[in-house]
Amino acid sequence: MKGLRWSTRTRKNEDKHKGSGHSIGTSSNSAPSSHRGSTTSTNSGLSISRHGSLPKSASNLYLSESQSRSQRSLSSSSSRHDLQTVTDEESIDSIPGHSNSLTPVISSNKDSMTINGGSGSTYAINNLTYDNKHASSVSNNDQSNADIRSESLDRSHTPALQLNSDNFDSMVFKTGWMNKSHGTVHTPSSNSSFGSSRNHRESRIYGSDLSSSSSVRSSSNYSQEYRLYKAQLKGCVLNLYKSGISNAKFLDPTLDPPDTKHEHEEDPQLPTPPLMTDIPVSTSKEQNSSKEAGPISSPSSKQSTVSAIQTKDNETNVSKDITEIKYLSEIYPHPNLKIDKHDQIVFGTVESICHAVLFSVTLETKKIVDLILMLPLIEDFSLFFQCFCLYGKTFSKNSEKLTNDSKQFHKVSPATDELMTQRLALVVKTVLDVFPGFLLDDTTFNHIINLLDIISLHDDEISNSLKLAIAESHNKLNKLVSFSKKPVDQNAISKFVDVKEFLKLDNAILADQIHAINLTYNKIWSPQKDYSLLYDSAFNKNYIDLNPLVFNNRSNIHYVSRLLIEHLFKQIDGTPLHPKERALVLTKWVQLGCTFEKIGDMVSWLAIATIICSTPILRLSLTWQYISDQTLKIIFKDWVPTIVQLERRQLSFRTTNSVFILAPPNLNEKSIRENVIPYFGDLTIHTNDLTQDTMFRYLEKKIYRTKNAFQKWQQRLPPIEMANIQSTPQNPDVDFHHYLNYHVSRSRLNVENIMEMSLKLEPPKLDKLDAFANLSKRSSLLNGSYLPILFNQLFLDYSLFSQTALIGAAGAQNNRQSFVQTNTLSRSGKTLSVSGPLGISPEDKSLITGIDRIDEPVVRELSTKQSNKQMLLKSIRDVFSINMDLFHVLDDLTFKSVDDWDKKSRPASVVIETPKRFSVQSSRDSQEVINRLSVGVENMDFFKNISKTTDSWDEAVINVVLKSASLEKLFDVLVLTSSVFSKLVSINDISAFFKNHQGKYNEGNGAGLLDYAIVKLCMDNDLYTKTFFSTYKSFTTTASLLENLAKRFIGAKSCAVSIERLVKDDSRKKATDLSGTTNNKFLCWDSASSEFGKEHYLHAAKIQIGTAEALFYLINEHYSDFNDDMHNNKLLLDIIKIMDQEIIDEWDLRITALSDSVEKSEAEKSLVIDLNSYHDKLKELLQKIKSSYQRQLYRPVGVSRHNRNTMKILNSFNTITMEELNKFALDNSLDDPMVSSFQKLKTDSYGEILNWMYQLDDLILSHLKLATVKEWMVVSQLLEGFSYESLSSLFKYSQLDHSYSQITSGNAHPDDLEIVNVFTWLASLVNGREESLFKKLPYSIQLITNLHISLTNFFVVQIAQLEKTYESRLETCCIILQMLGFSRYKNSSIDLFQATTDSGSTISPHLPSFIESALINSILSPESRKFEISWKNASEKLGNTTSLKSVYNILDCVDASIKKFIEFDGIAPRHKNFCPCPGWFIGRLLEISQLVPNMSIENSKLINFDKRRFTFNLVLNYQQLLQTNDVDLNIQSPTFGLILNHYEIDPNHSFRNRAKDVATSETKLMKYQLRGIFNEVLIAEMYKIKREQKKREHLISQEKELKRSQSLQQVMKQKSIDMQNSVLAQVQQQSGFSSSPRSKRSSIVNNSRNSVIYTATNSGNGVGRKIGGFFKRPFSISGFSSSVSSNGINSMLVNSIQQNGAVAPIDLPKISKEELQEQKPVLSIKTFDIKKCINVNNFSSDASMIYCFKILMENGNEHLIQTIDSHDLSQWLKTIALSKRYSFHSKKYKGKTSNKVFGVPIEDICEREGTLTPTIVHKLLEEIELRGLDEVGLYRVPGSVGSINLLKNAFDDEGAVHNVFTLEDDRWFEINTIAGCFKLYLRELPESLFTNEKLPDFIQLVEQFQTDQITEEAFDELVRQKLRTLPIYNYHMIKRIFQHLHRVHNHMDTNRMDASNLAIVFSMSFINQDDLANSMGPSLGLLQSLLQKFIRYPDTYFVYE
């Protein structure tokens, strides 16, 4: 901005000097500038005068170059610039960000500038540097011309521009003349000459040597028919304009005389990618070692240095010193003073305001004082003092100047002189009385002293009197703040800073010390005495920070607040305080605040209260959990109401006249009145947002308010005797002034800084990740990273997906063949199989999966099985879209029906929204197993609240839910209703719906077109709102949500217009047309419609009500989402203000206007009634929003009785060893009834066992109820977000490494292997930073997990108790088996459906209970497995059988016992079912998060809302299952389960080893031979560990490769930028002048022509405008001129035009920018549509084809262009290539230029994307590697051509970097489609990756090797060297391709594609497409041999990084 201010100031000075006769050019005594270029300040910004330009006012057109240069230091804004071709003012100076591009690097001290001279100095221009060759000439100029010198730089120092999206479209690359061919024309032989005789033109200008200039054309009878055009390449468009020369048809290059030198731009250097040889040799090993040594450093240190310098320069304040008075008159008002009709000042300049203060006779003194009080708020106070000093020196009653240094003088009358003197004294007196703080500002103080000296020239007595008063006040203030000039005493402040020492301090003593400081300030320097302390403007001075009586937390907090912050965020040895310690500190500060309030120090109290009640502190939930209720009551009841009052203005857009002076409640007490420190901050005057027209009136009002408030305060509190004030505390240990000094010496600390500290201390539960980045993450289903969540089960439980199929999909084999479940995942209408979708026929239901062995029982279970309860299964049907109809709205919204139809009326077809096939399955069997739905599909009442069901179809209402939508449409549905979109539903969808339900709807007769017109979609909007807000963080952010709600509230009017337009359209065909052709007109939110009228009022009101309801729900239910970002609160406050204005003001005006109309129709009356009702609703909602916001704004996060109970229980957990737990369980030292009653249980004591289980279940239920729906949703989002951190995130649990080492080490025993379950996995999971995921979970979930682990350990100890006898242990095992059997039976009441006895059933409906899962985990524990004899004998004892061979059959023995339990349970049943296991629930959340995609498979641009709704419904249903037992909750003993409140550890497996010894002894005692009943479980677990380890290694390898690629891309990104800068430097230099100018005569002629053309063109434009714009194009009036002047175009060219219309290029005039600005081009060629530019080889020496090139377009069109000479031809080719390469910067053609991928050179794409390899290559190959390496015939089997083209078009439309589609999209999910797309991309590359130039060299090397001319070692080395000669992008892309093909080759056993096959397939992608004849034959075979070697041994050849 510095340069911009300079330009403006210069322009003002220029205008000023023009008016006053002063020159602004180089001063007469300064040396003339030696620069060849200059700059001028014009209305359009800075422009550059270049070599050859002449001032318009120059009297002699024939000035020499030296004479011209001496007069060009500045040129007039109307001067002409004789530019060659390219960039002029528009192309450089009009580029945003480059208007001051010639600012030199300076070393600045404030506003003074010194330019470094010497040969070694450099200038930095736009982050680039160049040598300063003319520093000496610059430094010779005096300081007065420094600004001009800074821009009068030599042309050779033109800076390079950074081409970007802001300047590309305005960049002119080249301008010039050219011919364009319009076909061929037949010419007779006698007239074959392209041009006729030159008519002796040469003798007149060049001489009489005609023979040397003869032109002989080809004798061909056909030549090109050319037309002459002006051409300009601007941005990415080559425009051709009419020549404007009537008698010239075409240019003929042969007509130029010999040795003609045309004036050209400097050749642009096309960017060439760096070669591998340009980079220091670094092998992969070296690269890895460098990574270990440290991060890769950026090679742009010079650029960063320059950037830093420039940044510093930009921050330098620009001086605004006032040096002269423009209006030398005492007559009021000043011309620049704006006053209204009442003579009140509205606004004015500094000078005009000072003039009013000094010379206004109409304003009374009081008004003058008020005006002076405004000055510091209007502008920098120093400027006013400068102006006052100038008036005092300039205006005088004397006849001469008062001082010798006065530049101006104006005599006034003695009366005026006296008035001015009095007013100047009044200014000083006002400062003394009302602004004493300004005396602490050195600059202002010096100005005051200067002003006093000037006053002394008029009245010495007044001046001396004021000087004494000023000196006294200045000394008093300096003494007051003298502490700030002393060094900080660290020892003195340590007592306050140290937390432990602070906690020991007495509150009264500490408060007295602080209060004493405030009293001293209140006596000397309070806001009552200094109004400037209450001023909040951009001109505030830093001295305000020295006063502790005022503070603003948004800019700098109070010094007491800083101490509070230091205590709360204190770190000891790098570790923050424990939350309990922080709670103690916070409590101490609350008590200190109460002490301040008690003694009347309201400033200190508010400093504490506002920080404690600020968002950064309130969000510290861990800390607040330990704050006592009494402290919370003080904050809520006493503090918050006062803070709310002080912050009342932030919720309203209106200003309020009421102000508060904060005083203590006990003000009537004398001691308080004498020592009160009031807070006047509510009187602060803010001016930052004021406009000029409102500023004075606003300030006058606010200043009056402030004075009135002070007056009332004085009346309330009369002045007291200051002698009675005790200003210092008694015997202070340490003076608190030391900490105040410390505070002043530190940098400012505001609430934003505190927020950063708070986020580091307690990071948000859900990290603020890029929601859109998460959306684009692929489902784990595609890469197998979900394997760790597939836990081995003892008994099957319900799951959404088949574990067997998932294991196969991940490329692993399942081990438990006896338990393989061939479950199917399918959805309605299609079946998923490896070979593709299969149709389902109603007659053959056995083909539902396409697999014969999935038989009719499966179909029956999936489609017709009746369930016991209407609970979960409906949700399952929902997420899989089973038996549901879809309704598509436009292209970005899909609904689906949710009605229950008669199941027998439709075929049981099922479809799932998951990928259709699993190409990564590793075996033929697993390939045939389809991932399918594992349960039935009927009668689960999960949707009982989702849809508003209708009893009949009379209204054709369809109950729907939202299936998928774009982000914008999700917001639209949130605000609107689904019925709004009813008319836009596809007719095909409606037709299919009625066809499917014709029997139900119309007795089989179907539905007609009339039925279509009345279809209405109905959705439960309340439930959608709850679901949306519970899940929105998975696809957007809170800030984005608020912005979109604001957008819809503001845009309700324009949206209402579009809805009304749709409603009035009674034809569905029209509605469809509307949706298809004018999509942008429907639901338009952005623009305010001019059509908005009363007929739209109702729609607008409804929309705003919907928005307000959504906002209220967000604030009321999810306010905690605001606490992690301060920006969210700011957004919300802005929205509330907008709503306040719209609802209170705008709607009042609309309704009043309707009500006041004289004649109202019945419709209008009804409208008014409805509007009043809606208006009342809006006002009610607005009030609710405000109340809810204020209620929660100052409420600590997480402080509730519910959370406190959770933390209380969680904090009661202690860590103990398993041996200690064994001791507690033995002697019951904890006196826990749970232990004592369990010890008394017997096998046949059924009632006691039941009672014990029910008590335990009550305890569990009380814990489970602590987890809320919101917390479970957080768990779901945490799990999903955690999995996105890396591919191997879910594998990072400690047990995996430990178990893998166990099973791979030779001396390990499988008996010690731990069976991993969801609880132990979750508790040990860590991220890449070794941070525990478990610690991030909500505390209630942590508590539940710990409880389950503790209960499991309790059972383990009971089983393996060391002191038990064998008989006692056998009894315990029997009891546990009975408990397990009964718990499974008990929860059968909530089975999802009735289990079938059919042996073919593969579906388990079971939901395990908490107790059941704990029992199973304890049975499978290593300690329990050691007592095999006890389990076997217990089974035999209970079942009277000896057949137990596997633990999987262990419950076969409990059938008889269960009957007994049922009898006892039937007597007095207490629970309907046991509490469902939270581990099972977490497993289902994991399934959804990992296996259900985020984006719709049908259209991957749409967000899959099914997934969010299913998750939310699953959570709701789980909570409902808990509520069924809520009424029976009755914990008989508060100490029951006390033993569970422990964290159990087993150091060194001490307990396990002792249990092993006991088990061994029992086995020997009983002479039992181990039979391995747990072997199957152990084998299954070992298989699980091995497959996870293998998959983890594979994923880690992928991650490393990705990180390596990203690191290299980061380095190359900077290299690409540097290369662009280098190239663009050449582009800018083209805008200058050639180093080889024309002859002198030629230059003169062209200058004169240029002038004439310029004038004529302007004249034509002017005429065109005057006659109403009839002439749309500029035209020359010279054709109608009768002038015979030699300066006319026709008269000049008439003798040089040939008879056939040919003209020599040398005779063509210059083309100026002005000619082309308003002309309409006759042809525009987009460079991004150019396929290729070819230089025409004129082998036949055809004269009409010299200097020609051909433009080949993508659409097949061709353009033949002829240029003026060979150099011009080269420049056009290069600049077109340059424009094409960087066309992605274009804003005008965004989307057409920035995204195209196919057919674009790889170096162009890599530079555009800032990558090392094109992103499309990375994405396609990564997708293939994740799920396609085992695809049979990969790359050989072709994909669908249509699908390949769809994917290609998608990449070209959206690019590969920021595209919103995914490769999981159903349209191209097939892996062969993706592989085919990659092959197509390679084939369409414009050049072979080996480059056409070097390809023969590679082939030659292969030939030499095969003919034994070189050895294999030499061949390998030569190939490596040859690869290094490739461009770096080519090298790394080839490397990436062959590393990928090597992986494909390694899977040849399954994909049947070895290196030979791959080489054959890809050889055609590496040949020279332009030379197919030489590329085929033997060369092709040699190339294939080379490719085979690359595929087999990539590490041998690609060794460089």
From TrEMBL:
Composition bias type Low complexity, residue spans: 63-78, 208-219
Domain of life of the native organism: Eukaryota
Residues of the Ras-GEF domain: 506-764
Bias kind Basic and acidic residues: ranges: 148-157, 258-267
SUPFAM superfamilies per the UniProt record, alphabetical: GTPase activation domain, GAP, Ras GEF
Ranges where the Rho-GAP domain occurs: 1800-1998
Region Disordered: start-end pairs: 1-113, 135-161, 183-219, 252-313
Entry keywords, A to Z: GTPase activation, Guanine-nucleotide releasing factor
GO terms of biological process kind: cytoskeleton organization; small GTPase-mediated signal transduction
Coiled coil: none
UniProt xrefs under InterPro entries: Ras-like_Gua-exchang_fac_N, Ras_GEF_dom_sf, RASGEF_cat_dom, RASGEF_cat_dom_sf, Rho-GAP, Rho_GTPase_activation_prot, RhoGAP_dom
Gene3D superfamilies in the record: Ras guanine-nucleotide exchange factors catalytic domain (1.10.840.10), Rho GTPase activation protein (1.10.555.10), Son of sevenless (SoS) protein Chain: S domain 1 (1.20.870.10)
Domain N-terminal Ras-GEF: 997-1159
One of the record's GO cellular component terms: cell cortex
Polar residues bias locations: 23-47, 97-113, 135-147, 280-313
UniProt GO molecular function: GTPase activator activity; guanyl-nucleotide exchange factor activity
Protein name: KLLA0E00903p
